Every structure is written in C-alpha cells, then in structure tokens.
Amino acid sequence: MDLVFSQLTDLFRIGLIVALVVTMFRTSAVTGRVLPLALGVVFVAVIVPTTLSTGSASLTDAILAGLASNLIILVLVLAVVALVARLRR
Questions:
Q1: Is the pLDDT of residue 1 over 90?
Q2: Which end of the chain is less packed: N or C, by CB atoms within 10 Å?
Q3: Residue 65: how many CA atoms within 13 Å on its side-chain side?
Q4: Distance between CA 89 and CA 86 in Å, rounded?
C-alpha cells in the first residue's frame, strides 16, 4: 500500500499520464481512445520502475502497483477533463 501511495504522489508519473491524455485527445481521430490509453498506462507502469530505482520493492510488485496507481491517476485526470468540458458549455 505504501508503494501505491508513493507512486500516486510521483510528479513524473502524474505528468506522464497527463501527457498521455493530451496526446490521446489530439490523435483520437486516427488511433481511437481506449487502446492508446490502455497501452500508455501499461507503458508508464513498466518504464518508470525499470528506469528509476524502486527501493526495496521487487520489479513485479512495482509494476503491479504502477498499474493500480496509473489507473487511479488516469481516472482523476479524465474526470477533470470532463468537468472542464462540461463547464465550457
């Protein structure tokens, strides 16, 4: 649980997910929405622990915790985007 919380507060991970959502909206006419988001979440969950030191957690635990935290961050970012879109109308 501490690993997920530490990943939820990782600004680098949050920035990557926000950039993923922005890119998804810009390219959604060509690539769609669901597949790029799913692959991006998995990519960030794998690339961050493999390139940065994760401390005492195993790589598998770090990737699984990354998947959970990425999905939570993605849901929050998509909720903010939907709220902004609704307020613009």
A1: no
A2: C
A3: 20
A4: 6
Sequence-separated (6 or more) residues with CB below 8 Å from residue 69: 4, 7, 8, 10, 13
Structure token pair of residue 26? 């810009």
The CA-based angle 36-47-16, given to 5 degrees, is 55
Would you state the pLDDT for residue 54?
60
Task: Please identify which residue in the block is written with the tokens 């769609």.
Answer: 32
53: pLDDT strictly greater than 80 = no
Cα four-point dihedral sign 20, 75, 2, 58: negative
**21: number of Cβ within 10 Å:** 19
